[in-house]
Automatic annotation (TrEMBL):
CDD domains: CBM6_xylanase-like, GH43_XynD-like. This is Arabinoxylan arabinofuranohydrolase. One of its GO terms (molecular function) is hydrolase activity, hydrolyzing O-glycosyl compounds. It holds the Pfam family Glyco_hydro_43. GO terms for biological process: xylan catabolic process. Keywords: Carbohydrate metabolism, Glycosidase, Hydrolase, Polysaccharide degradation, Signal, Xylan degradation. The keyword Hydrolase applies. It comes from Saccharothrix carnea.
Length: 783
């Protein structure tokens, strides 16, 4: 098989995007109605129990009869002999609904009279008593097919709900009997669901098409992404926009004001396509580590050895007023507040001119170990002048102390053209690159020789301290996201190096736009692009795309894979399993029937023999379907989720013929309308090596001798390690068909029965496979 760098299916991606745009974005609510169904016998499986003919008016009348022609299950209701348009199946709701609360309603209807219109509108209606009627939900059904009625409604706070009744009807007309085939047709009803609306941040729409690399995640938002590469893995720390995402019944959230954000979201990847969600860091506010801070925006992370131990430093913006810092033992914490106060404030020497912001920290450590902090922004003095617009001089750089949680000396001013925010520095080829977001115009004329508004521009200097002056301006790295995605807004970036290549992170409202079908409310998502350079060291301009970057390595399926590691998904959320500031342990949750997740380019080598998952079943009868390369492709394995409900357990299934590199899709199956399962991790089983072992005991003089023999029945060389209570032996490159042995002189007169452990390792089709076996031996007594 091809062992080259994994390649993305760009043609498929473009086809999928084209189809999506051509057909219009399919929009589904992002807020789930998770309460119990308030309708008795909603699917008519118990005949007509709980149902009557609506009789709100004296002229109403109809006949209800059970039918087996159902939308789902085995039962539905047939409505015939209708006297009025309101003559339909009804159910009393006294004591079930409350004034001031919001509810969702759905129902299925079907009519078949060939003399009736080709399509017909139906309503689910509430009768509160007297003359008070309200249409709750509606839909248009094609003749001969089941149509969906749906709606969300709020009962007015002052509405009496002593005698509420819900029923299904056709639109009112004054004289329906004049055209009975149009207004009084027979129809069937099934699957009536009325639930109290429960807000949820779970995103149910398909926010990222399979094959796309951007946005990096589609189950939550994340802004101002700062990338930190460490030990072959990149961690992206983000402003947690999801914290203030509050979709209403129509799935649309109020505009993001950022004011309630006091946690930082972290994701990571070692291949740039499969991203692991590490949840949120509790930074500020009453439940945060830095309780003296109110917000945490625009994080930045770096590591440094302090007092002989590598420490990690998380800088954050306390809104526009200050910058703080936390310290951790790893890129994922646990984090602690060692300083006990904000790091940069208006009292920091040189930090403030009275109008500039003190946020958006960018941290850089030079080759000599000296740390620098870049911060600041804003600076509009209201003068509408050319000078203030193009040279607000609102950002700063200051040296950090050796402890990385203190500053040295005074901050120096950065004069970047059209400066606004998002200062960030990286080093390449002995040069220092300062990138930033340009402003949107402070009222004065904009210098045409500088950057365009709302773009990521950069300066190049010979020192981390610059001096950062207008003559160092080198151009634009990235235009405003609105140029590429049709949704603008603020701009924020970082640059990281991984495996010798440079990459650029930015954010855009792509997921927000897909949720709503085109509108945005300021909820941003992380993106990544390759950063390339010209021969003179200048940066090639980055274009915003859904493609993202190529996967730089295959995923290893023969390790424990956290279930919150996701390439593409739909309908899922994540939750933390442990304390907020512990090294995070997360799981998939809010898992409904039909939801799915996936892994990109998992390399199974010569073949996997099984797949397992650590799960907590929440209902009985669930399962997980496994597919390869296409989320609608053939099922290659089904994992029964058959453990005890409410308890963590291991479940699994056998696999046959799964070899080479594949995208892997997991689809969840179970009862509709219920949370099915939580999932902690996945794991695939390797094939066992064909290695045999044998052992015998003999007497060598007065002492016992143990001899262990190993035979390689594979077609490739095998490395073998033999471990016994009396020593260990390593056999390198045991050739196919060969046997190697080793005698262990025990110096014991009496040898109890026991077992030797034989661990074999080989490279099969370019993939390392290991197996272990226990080789028993008999007791021996020597004289």
């Amino acid at each position: 098989m091809d062992r080259q760098r994994p390649q993305r299916r760009r043609a498929a991606v473009l086809a999928a995007v084209g189809a999506l745009l051509a057909g219009g974005l399919a929009v589904a609510p992002t807020a789930a109605a998770a309460g119990p169904n308030l309708i008795t016998n909603p699917g008519f499986e118990d005949g007509l129990s709980g149902w009557t003919v609506n009789n709100g008016n004296a002229t109403d009348g109809a006949t209800l009869a059970p039918t087996g022609d159902a939308h789902s299950g085995s039962g539905a209701v047939l409505v015939t002999n209708r006297k009025t348009t309101g003559s339909g199946p009804a159910q009393e709701l006294a004591g079930k609904v409350q004034a001031g609360k919001t509810y969702t309603v759905t129902a299925r209807v079907k009519y078949e009279n060939p003399e009736s219109p080709a399509t017909k509108q139906f309503f689910v209606t509430m009768h509160y008593g007297g003359s008070t009627y309200t249409n709750l939900g509606t839909g248009t059904a094609p003749r001969g097919q089941w149509g969906l009625l749906q709606g969300t409604f709020t009962i007015p706070a002052g509405q009496s709900v002593t005698t509420p009744r819900v029923f299904v009807e056709t639109p009112w007309v004054a004289d329906p009997a004049a055209a009975p085939a149009t207004h009084l047709m027979d129809f069937k009803v099934d699957d009536v669901v009325l639930r109290e609306f429960t807000p949820s941040t779970t995103i149910e729409v398909l926010g990222k098409n399979p094959g796309e690399g951007n946005p990096l995640i589609s189950h939550k938002f994340g802004a101002d992404g700062n990338a930190f590469a460490h030990d072959g893995r990149v961690y992206v720390y983000m402003t947690n926009d999801t914290q203030v995402y509050n979709p209403g019944p129509d799935g649309t959230s109020p505009t993001n004001t950022y004011g309630g954000i006091n946690t930082i979201t972290v994701i990571s990847s070692d291949d740039l396509v499969n991203w692991t969600d590490h949840g949120e860091i509790p930074v500020a506010g009453p439940n945060g580590l830095a309780k003296y801070a109110s917000q945490s925006w625009a994080p930045a992370v770096e590591s440094r050895v302090v007092d002989g131990k590598e420490q990690f430093f998380l800088y954050f913006a306390n809104n526009g007023a200050a910058t703080g810092v936390l310290v951790g033992d790893s890129p994922l914490g646990p984090w602690r507040d060692e300083r006990g106060s904000l790091l940069v404030t208006a009292q920091t020497p040189g930090a403030s001119d009275g109008r500039n912001w003190l946020f958006d920290p960018g941290v850089f450590i030079d080759d000599d170990g000296q740390g620098y902090l870049y911060f600041g922004g804003g600076g509009n003095d209201g003068s509408n002048s050319y000078e203030n617009t193009n040279h607000p001089k609102s950002t700063r750089v200051i040296k950090l102390g050796d402890d990385m949680i203190s500053t040295e000396g005074a901050a120096e001013t950065i004069d970047a053209p059209l400066m606004f925010e998002a200062g960030h520095v990286f080093k390449r080829g002995g040069k220092y690159y300062y990138s930033y977001s340009s402003n949107f115009g402070f009222g004065g004329p904009i210098d045409p020789n500088g950057p365009p508004t709302g773009a990521i521009a950069y300066l190049v200097a010979d020192s981390p301290m610059g001096p950062w002056t207008p003559d160092k301006y080198a151009g634009v790295i990235f235009k405003n996201p609105g140029v590429y995605f049709g949704a603008g807004g603020n701009n924020h970036q970082s640059v990281f190096e991984l495996n010798g290549e440079h990459y650029f992170t930015y954010h855009a409202q792509t997921l927000n736009r897909r949720i709503t079908g085109g509108a945005t409310q300021g909820f941003r998502s992380p993106h990544v692009a390759k950063l390339e350079f010209n021969a003179d060291g200048t940066v090639k301009e980055v274009l915003g795309t859904f493609d993202g970057v190529e996967q730089i390595r295959h995923l290893d399926p023969y390790r424990v894979i956290e279930a919150e590691t996701i390439a593409w998904q739909q309908g899922l959320a994540t939750k933390r399993l442990n304390a907020p500031n512990d090294v995070p342990q997360l799981a998939l949750h809010d898992v409904d029937n039909g939801d799915w997740t996936s892994l990109s380019s998992a390399d199974f080598g010569s073949g996997a023999t099984g797949v397992s998952a650590r799960v907590k079943p929440l209902v009985g009868g669930g399962s997980i379907q496994l597919r390869l390369d296409d989320r609608t492709g053939p099922v290659v394995a089904t994992i029964p989720v058959d453990g005890p409900v409410g308890q963590w357990t291991e479940v699994g299934a056998e696999l046959d013929g799964v070899s080479g590199a594949h995208d892997v899709y997991f689809t969840f199956v179970g009862p509709d309308g219920q949370d099915l399962v939580e999932v902690d991790s996945w794991r695939f089983a390797k094939p066992s090596l064909k290695v045999e072992g044998a052992a015998d005991t003999r007497c060598a003089g007065p002492n016992a001798k143990l001899t262990v023999r190993v035979t390689n029945n594979e077609s490739v060389p095998v490395d073998v390690v033999v471990q016994t209570p009396y020593g260990a032996k390593t056999f390198d490159d045991v050739e196919p068909g060969k046997t190697r042995f080793h005698p262990f002189q025990t110096r014991e007169r009496a040898l109890p029965a026991g077992a030797a452990t034989v661990t074999a390792t080989a490279t099969v089709d370019g993939h390392e496979v290991s197996s272990a076996l226990s080789v028993p031996y008999d007791a021996r007594t020597c004289r």
